[in-house]
Design brief:
The protein is an alpha+beta fold. The protein has one domain: Alpha-Beta Plaits (2-Layer Sandwich). The chain contains 2 helices and 3 strands; from the N terminus they run E-H-E-E-H. The protein has a 3-stranded antiparallel beta sheet with strand order 1-3-2. The chain starts with a strand and ends with a helix.
Length: 78
C-alpha cells in the first residue's frame, strides 16, 4: 500500500473539492482530511489537507501549480 502525502491545504470544502476535481482530471486519486482539530459541533467550513499517493506527489504539485498560474493570469497578475 502506498502512503499518502499532503500536497495542499484548502481553506474550505469548496476549494478542496476544486483541487480534487483538478487532480482527478489529471488522473490522480486524492483524499481529504481535516487540517486541524475541529469541533464537530461547529458549523464553520474547516480547512482540509489534500492528500495523494506518494508516487503521484510531483504530478499533483505540477497540476496545482498550473491551476494557480492560470488563476493569476485571469486576475491579470504576472
Amino acid at each position: 500500500m502506498t502512503s499518502l502525502v499532503q500536497v495542499a491545504v484548502a481553506g474550505d470544502v469548496t476549494e478542496a473539492e476544486q483541487l480534487q476535481d483538478l487532480l482527478q482530471a489529471a488522473g490522480i486519486d486524492s483524499q481529504l482530511e481535516l487540517a486541524a482539530e475541529h469541533d464537530p459541533r461547529a458549523t464553520d467550513d474547516p480547512p482540509l489537507k489534500v492528500l495523494v499517493p506518494e508516487n503521484d506527489v510531483e504530478a499533483a504539485r505540477d497540476a496545482i501549480e498550473a491551476l494557480a498560474e492560470e488563476a493569476d493570469e485571469e486576475l491579470g497578475e504576472p
